[in-house]
Amino acid sequence: MKPTPIDSSIVKEKIDASGLASIGRSSIREIRTLINEIEEASGEKFIRMEMGIPGLPAAKIGLEAEKAALDNGCASFYPDIQGIPELKSEISRFVKAFLDLDVNPGGCIPCTGSTSGSFVSFLVAGRMNPDKDTVLFLDPGFPVHKQQLNVIGIKHRSLDVYNYRGEKLRAALEEILSEGNISSILYSNPNNPTWICFTDTELKIIGELATKYDVVVMEDLAYFTMDFRKDYSIPNQPPFQPTVGKYTDNYLLLISSSKAFSYAGQRIGMIAISDRLFQREVPGLSRFYTQKTFGRAMIYGAAYAVSAGVTHSAQYGLAALLKATNEATYRFIDEVKIYGERAKKMKKYFIDNGFSIVYDKDEDEPIADGFYFTVAYPGMDGVQLIEELLYYGISAISLANTGSERIEGIRACVSLVADERLPELEQRLQVFHENHPVS
Length: 439
Ligand SMILES: Cc1ncc(COP(=O)(O)O)c(C=O)c1O
Known about the structure:
Elements: H1 8-18, H2 28-42, E1 47-48, H3 60-71, H4 85-99, E2 108-111, H5 114-125, E3 134-139, H6 143-152, E4 155-160, H7 168-177, E5 182-188, H8 200-212, E6 216-221, E7 251-256, E8 269-273, H9 275-279, H10 294-307, H11 312-326, H12 332-352, E9 356-357, E10 361-362, E11 365-366, E12 372-376, H13 382-390, E13 394-395, E14 397-398, E15 410-413, H14 422-435
Parallel strand pairs: 1-13, 3-4, 3-5, 5-6, 6-7
Antiparallel strand pairs: 2-8, 7-8, 9-12, 10-11, 12-15, 14-15
Helix pairs in contact: 1-2, 3-11, 4-11, 5-6, 5-10, 7-8, 12-14
The site of pyridoxal-5'-phosphate has 13 residues, from helix 5.
């Protein structure tokens, strides 16, 4: 055995001291704390792939607009609960420019990060009909969404799409929806943690079945237009980011500013509700809200109860960013495509050293290079792999709590791996491979 890049006695000591029953099953925050401690004790820096956080500075246009709004006194006023008018109209323009969907500004609502957008959406879409008491996740997915449902007390179930890509999705999805208890479906596209992207065939199936079984689709576009295989960067010009909104009017979109504009710290995101869903009268909602109209229950019922509006200055910041993007004077895709370039290199180092990509295809096409990818190593499951990689100074998370059935897999996030660390990643993986020969 070659010596591991991080002193194995230090790694072992810190693992034992952490009190964690299983490192591979621990939460991201727990893994983060453990790694910080190993780094401090060993003096060695890890290749940090565990956290899905932006690795770029926040977009300046937003910061400048926020500063101006604060100087103009916005901090002392409650913002309108439905969002400031200029932001609502820019969200509507953004959705038209990049998805080619028409959504009235009235249905475009800011939220305190897409995380709160999904929370208020569950509070309404998950409670429309007492017989429909379960939310379906097209998994793997973002664990916080399941936690949100646990907090509210709404049931959820999961369909790992690994074996159901393309036309195969129809039968698998229909089998679940035909049971009649699903209120809504949520998936992210591109997907966290796997970076699979649903094809138009799949989005059409989801949309058609959502209409047939009256299920609300929540399309989480946290990584908006970041399938870099296509150029979605030019507003109001095809190709457009594929969306379920082309195939059903029973949808709402959750759009994050955290990754697209590296704006995670400001906690602002957007919900865009289709015109038909926004206006829909839902008698079941009167059990919880004074208003039965879906959109009104969302704004004056759920969003009001959760945060009574969204930080005023952040709304001005996001409005300015969207305006510049809609008018093509700012191209956020140029900033974030570095994630794709980096993923391409990193995936190659993993593959060259005995790893394989777990979620590797969108139907027949290899997945895009982007913010995340999933890997596995022969003879180990994901939980073992996470722990073993600590000795090599590499951190990631297992797919165990993402709704994935591929227990061999781990998720790597590329955002915090600076280009100058890439040679080190390659060397560490080479040592790992030598120490774990594959027969
Ligand atoms: C799929 C997915 N949805 C939602 C979010 C949360 O986004 P926000 O920072 O806007 O709350 C993330 C963040 O990592 C994500 O990966």
